[in-house]
Amino acid sequence: MYPFSTQNGKDFQNLLSVYLDAAFFPCLREQDFWQEGWRLENENPTDPNSPLVFKGVVFNEMKGAFSDNERVYAQHLQNKLYPDHTYSVVSGGEPLAIPDLTWEQLKQFHATHYHPSNARFFTYGDLPLEQHLKQIEEEALSKFERINPNTEVPPSHTGREDHVTCSPDALAPDPARQNTLCVSYLLGDITDTFEGFTLSLLSSLMISGPNSPFYKALIEPNIGTDFSSVVGYDGSTKEASFSIGLQGMAEEDTERVKQIISQTINDIIESGFEEERIDALLHKIEIQMKHQSTNFGLSLASYIASSWNHDGDPVELLQINDSVAKFKQTLKENPRFLQDKVKHYFKENTHRLTLSMSPDEVYLEKQAKAEEEKLQKKIHALSDSDKKDIYEKGLELLAAQSKTQDASCLPALKVSDIEPTIPVTPVQISTAVGVPVQYCEQPTNGLVYFRAMCSLNTLPEDLRLYVPLFCSVVTKMGCGGLDYRQQSQQMELRTGGMSVSTQVVPDSTQLDMYEQGVLLSSSCLERNLPHMFHLWSDIFNNPHFDEVERLRVLVMMSAQELANGISYSGHMYAMTRAGRHLTPAGDLNETLGGMEQVKFMKRVAELSDLSQVIRTLVRIKKHLLNPDNMRCAINTTPQKMSDTAAQLESFMKDVADNRKERKPVRSNIIEWFSTGKKMPCQMKTFFQLPFPVHFISESIRTVPFSHHDYARMMTAKFLHGEIREKGGAYGGGARMGGGLFSFYSYR
């Protein structure tokens, strides 16, 4: 997919023109292939005596992609589950297969597949459709004749067990438990809209939340740290699949997990699902249809793309109400409808793959050796003339990369094309039982959105590292008269979700000042407003932190998630760490969301006794869930605003007993460096991580948001040519924010 979005009509035309040209009429010059694909080149392009090495952006990118154990597992699973056709290969390129690709093969692939006969066009929004179609016809379609691309994917057949290896993870919560096991089942064709809808619902009932059968059977016994990286229903391929398994498990538990999966399927066939859980899932779908997310049009495009590409009906996919109505009617006529599906697709289905993965201490050495052997084989086949030619082509590429590109061919916006004013959203500022509230009337499609910011200013320093854990578990441990299963069920039945997250907001005028807190966030259908605030009241007044085994499960899942995220978001961790000693907000961001937090959660996950953690969570609750340190925001329709304000007032009265004046450890806006305790300083840090990708960042203390120089620092275009084109890094750029200018790259 090549998605884009904009609110400006002229900008949309310009972007569409550029995208049509890039997709259907790319230059695909040989030099572009050398730079973006792969090439043999002297390590130092200006020194013919330096060793020959593999270079190329995509080559480096795919090496990086295969440094992530979760990606390695997911890739092997798809390749082995669909062994007969396009899904049996790596779409981005197996790293050691990329050096076998030729420029001619690339051009032929593009000519065959990047053709309007093999394309789908999707637009969404308030701009005239006729204008879009006219532009697409004139700039692309009219220049081609229809062909038969012959891209139909045949059915797959599989039924086996397999095993793969990966590199050990030094940050795993338990170094002795790093195995993964998953069973994947081939399902039906994704073009059957109702069957896909049913199987997606069935997947959620089987795995989502603490009330689901597989969560109870696999997660809660603490056999592993979390579900396998591939889990649930996947409708992105021609034939859908369902996967279930565990990661962070011991090798000796392999057979036990297989037996649990089989037994759980039998239990579902026997007992089915509680009616209340099905109602909660249908409620979730109702909210999803009403919630207008950011980039809503692009989300719709992604939703229909897979089925549409295999000649499914995209309009039928969007008629979700019809599928819901048919589902309800079918279930009414046959109460065992879902159990019959489980029996057919899981118990009786022989088209399945059981894939295990275990760490290999010499995994990276094997990968490096294979690459070196491939390189030497290429080099040994070269004559002196070939090597001279490679050197000269390297110089040509370097010269081309150093030239300023002619951008005159690109369409551009004029100042007159841009709306000179920004729409102002009116808000009303008031109070509810003394708590500041912002009310905003919006066309929310029958939903009410609630936000609350609770200050961290009174929190003692020794509790700060625990705040992300508190945020993660406070809505998942039970509250009031509800245990954690009942709480989860009520949240799914009555809300669109309830979350708590850390917030660090730099001041817009002063670098050494910031605000800190946790953000409470939830939404609900208008009819469920009292229920949503009642759940928040129970969380404020009586959260349950004393369920030790439940806490242990959540701790292990959180630690595993953080460890898994490093290879995927290493550049973000590098930037966070680089800014630690430059601003107060940077220091707090590292504590709450950087490598310091990753290491801290690993230590917590290794604790055999969590009693001290429980006592700490109780202390944090007294500081954070305090109306005296709180402000709120409500977004809903004008018709519902009065009732919402009354419900918020009632909620504030319910939690009034949590009020307790505390002396701030830091004032609301903090003067950090002026105290003389800390000064910005230069610091170099290196983390040795178990994968062959280097994430590098350098941060520089600059100016706050409102400074007159800020806008000039927002561009990072020159880095693309230097870091990616010349340097070969598959990722690189810069980010400005919070008074820091941060460079980053990964290769």
Automatic annotation (TrEMBL):
The keyword Zinc belongs to this UniProt entry's keyword annotation: yes
Oligomer status and interactors: Monomer and homodimer; homodimerization is induced by binding of the substrate.
UniProt keywords, alphabetically: Hydrolase, Metal-binding, Metalloprotease, Mitochondrion, Protease, Zinc
GO MF term list: metal ion binding; metalloendopeptidase activity
Gene Ontology cellular component annotations, sorted alphabetically: mitochondrial matrix
Any GO BP: protein processing
Similarity annotation: Belongs to the peptidase M16 family. PreP subfamily.
Record's subcellular location: Mitochondrion matrix
UniProt cofactor(s): Zn(2+)
Domain called Peptidase M16C associated: residue spans: 357-604
Gene3D superfamilies on file: Metalloenzyme, LuxS/M16 peptidase-like (3.30.830.10)
UniProt protein name: Presequence protease, mitochondrial
Annotated region described as Disordered, given as residue ranges: 148-171
